[in-house]
Amino acid sequence: MIELAASILSADFSRLGEQVHAAGEGGGSVVHVDIMDGHFVPNLTIGPPVVKSLRKVTKLPLDCHLMIENADEFIPAFADAGADWISVHQEACPHLNRTLHLIKSHNCLAGVVINPATPVDTLSEVLDIVDYVLVMSVNPGFGGQKFIPAALHKMRRLAEIRSQRRLAYRIEVDGGISLDTVADVVRAGAEILVAGNAVFGSGDPRKNAEALLKAATEALLLKV
Ligand code: DX5
Ligand code: ZN
After folding, report:
1. Mind listing the pLDDT tens digit for each residue in 6-26?
2. Facing residues of 172 across strands?
3. CB-ligand 1 contact for 177 (6 Å cutoff)
4. What local confidence, expressed as pLDDT, does residue 224 receive?
5. pLDDT, tens digit, for every residue of 22-57?
6. Which single residue of 81, 85, 149, 200 has CA 20 to 30 Å from 174?
7. Cα-atom radius of gyration of the chain, to the nearest Å?
8. Best residue among 142, 177, 178, 199 to mutate for probing ligand 1, ranked by most atoms within 8 Å of CB
9. How far apart are alpha carbons 191 and 183 in whole angstroms?
10. Residue 35: which of 16, 3, 63 has the closest Cα?
11. Which residue from 54, 61, 55, 72 is spatially nearest to 9, judged by alpha carbons?
12. What is the DSSP string of 78-95?
């Protein structure tokens, strides 16, 4: 099943509740929250208080994508604020196994993320403990960037490994997802599609979400 995770990074923060609601009306079933620390990535965004506020305006799962150093220090606060899913970067976590178990100990789904330059092979020792793998299809830090096509073979590889090893993680993709790229990622095996600019950049988030999901579903039907 394909799910759309609307990334609030491109939303109008002065009416965040309304925008999240609109994406949900259009079929968005997850709210993707980008947490940036100005160290691991060259941008700053939000912390646990905003997650706590989001928790009050939506029942949809809050998918917190941590682009931060020292994730272990902040995971409890995000979980307490109402995060349902928490993902951490392979590149930012020297004790990745411990960090993923920490997420699970807070009753959140645990995800691992890889940057465009990081090979899928670096995840071999954690694939059996994660609930999802997030493949970055842009270099993290900003919304509205161009999709990097090399991400496609990583999603195919992750789907292949999952069936070979009989694992159950889901495959998520983040960055540059639009009507132009959605069919390719779905055919490559992506099941959770993060989209910021394509949902909130211009026009009506409800209609934008609907159009993306329609294109994704059609591409899946045509998948051989
Ligand atoms: C980028 C973030 C993304 C971002 C995607 O660092 O992780 O979630 O919001 O934005 P778009 O969909 O505009 O590429
Ligand atoms: Zn993200």
Report:
1. 999 999 999 999 999 999 999
2. 134, 192
3. yes
4. 59
5. 999 999 999 999 999 999 999 999 999 999 999 999
6. 81
7. 16
8. 142
9. 11
10. 63
11. 54
12. HHHHT-SEEEEEGGG-TT
